[in-house]
Amino acid sequence: MNMSYLTYKMHEPALLNAFEKSKFRPEVDVVTYSDMIATGGVMYSSRVKLSFTTKSDPFMRCYMYIPGSLISEQHYLSEDEKAAVEMWLNSVHLAEASLKQRSNNKV
User: Fold this and answer.
1) Which of 14, 23, 43, 99 is the most interior residue, by most CB within 10 Å?
2) Residues 6+ apart with CB under 8 A from 61
3) Mean pLDDT of all residues belonging to the chain
4) What b/e readout covers 80-103, taking b as 16+ CB neighbours within 10 angstroms?
5) Residue 18: pLDDT band with limits 50, 70, 90
6) pTM for this one?
7) So where are the chain's domains?
8) Considering just the CA atoms, what is the radius of gyration of the chain in Å?
9) Predicted confidence (pLDDT) per residue in 32-86, tens digit
């Protein structure tokens, strides 16, 4: 597990809260070799993916790779859901930067 994945996973409850009234249930997953094969290696630099699974029929699962996918490309998300993901990503990036800053200060 890399530190980036653990940071995103730690913040997953906030993402779940943001999607409480959505038709999707988001989940933070690690990028696997299967993802690399499925995307033709395009997501090589990605370390984390968000999966969005519908909470009821019909079943649908979509992925967003971090870094790699753009919010604007997530056509299955509503504008409110896109905004929620954007805000959540910003909060995770701020937390990650803060952790890096603290570890650099200790050295």
Assistant:
1) 43
2) 51, 52, 53, 54
3) 87
4) ebeebbeebbeebeeeeeeeeeee
5) very high
6) 0.82
7) 3-106
8) 15
9) 888 888 888 777 778 889 999 999 989 999 999 988 888 988 999 999 999 999 9
